[in-house]
Amino acid sequence: MGLIAALMATGCAGNAGSNPQPEAAQNAETVQAQQETGAEQETAADAGQQSAEPAQEAAAPQIVKYESSQGWNASYNSADIEVIEDDAVYFSYKGEAEGTNQIGVLYYPDQMPDEVLGAAMSVNNEMPDHTRSEGYFAGRTDVWALRTSMESAYLPNAIDDFIAVERNGGTLLLQITTTKQADEAAGIKVSDALAAVVDSFELIDQQPQTYSQYVPGKYVTSAEDGIEGEESTEYYVQFNEDHTGLIHLQDDISVIWYSREGKVLNAETGEQIYEYDVEGDSLYLTDYSDENAEAIEFTRESAENTAEAEISAVDYADTANWAYFGVGDDKDADLFLVGPTVDTLDEENMSLDYEVMRKYFAGALEMERGMYEESARMYAPYYRQMALNGYKLEDKDEQDRRLAFAYQDISNAFKYYLENENNGRPIVLAGFFQGSDMVYRLLEEYFGDEEMQDRLVAAYAIGWACTEDMVKEYPQIKPAQSADDLGVVISFDCEAPEVTETVVNPAGQKAYSINPLNWKTDSTPADKSENIGSRFMKSNGKIIGEYTGLCGCYIDEERGVLKVTDVDPADYPAVLDIFPEGAYHIYDYQFFFMNLQENVQNRVELYMEQAAAADQAA
Known about the structure:
Number of domains: 3
Shape: globular
Strand content: 25-35%
Structural class: alpha+beta
Number of strands: 29
Radius of gyration: 27 Å
Helix content: 10-25%
Number of helices: 13
Distance between the termini: 83 Å
Oligomer: single chain
């Protein structure tokens, strides 16, 4: 097996798949993103409460980082690998093994990957038999690589694998030579050592890749133009710059598109399902499984049409634009729930035309609704949220523009709800992550007057910071002080004790938080015995784990964030690459699910009691 095949099989070096995470790690807003690549797992891991016999200690790896003057770094275990600088930089395996086993790295300025690969593989001006593939490089979804594999033309019993990465106007080429080993164990050791080097690559100041930049975009057609026998309706192909995409025909299919040979893979199964070709503004899509299939022509949607579609208002009189609309008629209070960030496909804001995105959005809400559904009638609008990419922007003005666009939908939905559904009923606002950002904006716009403040039971704005500036500018935003005050904001975001900043709570920012176990706002620690139940769920609402006393917590006095104790970051990884290790953001409400559920019920009951008493007094 060549090294590229080994890398693809193990998920290293940019394989489009992902290694399984602990089950708990998949049960928050990013479950939807993981489902797009088939990463929703059925493991029965009892996260945080597993025990095992101590493993026999192995010799500690001697990890060394090689820093190239050409702007790339790679790490290696010096017990297995030595670095040789010659015409290229070679990472050579020095353990017991047959033949040559090494990675040669060389940068070719002003040449594109196909050109470099062709020259590297050519033998006497002829192209030998080889296999080709492509995919993400070193786990980076913003860096795409072309790969080939062939029998070595110069070394006996060896395989040459090539990985070509477009880098800042040139190509970084990795030539990986491995000799077939008679001893299978030795072969595995060689592959593991070299794969670890490839997987460790860091590209400094990597600029956006331009290779195949003519492909990404949205291409549309109507049924009458391209799909015989269907009623006239719009179908489309969305290819994103990170090589993900969505094909909307009879069903929505998340895909990975290749730069060459026009391959389109099902992102969940990894199987090729279509072939494509782009000519000017036309994209031709052919069913790969049908050798007699005719290509369907799609036309690139212009930027003007895209902008016009984005500007048009969502019709919230149409209940199809609500994930929940009046669910639970027998409740005394209303819940207006704003969904979290689920869109990892779009560059800017989520399109409501994507049925698969609606599915993931509804799935995220299913994982939260259990906190509220016993206490309130539920309303939750679909909205054109800012896609996850927006949180990576250095241009904060552009980020604000995308969030403001998302809030237009939330504001319009809330206005429709107030004018047509509320009828003076008490309101619980709730959100998570971006949804909580939207909740703060609702408080700013709609709850400045006393009548609306009196209607507010509480706002559960979890996973987004309630800041000092926010509270100072908008006095209607009142941080909760206890377990039973009304008209207040319940807010916190979870971290391991060693974390110093996240995108939710950057360095230098002080947040107002409340401890969801002891309901204190100071640093008084809450023991895990006060945690009446953590709950982890799948996106269909199925409970996959409930644990009493899983974790405790305390509020960090300096930053105001919630520090979680008694759990290991290795068992609860950050999952999203916008968060550092130890950021427990995606577990914010899951860690304390039943305490929060109880608190919602108690606050609603207290509100109703006080309202009844006020009516009697009047």
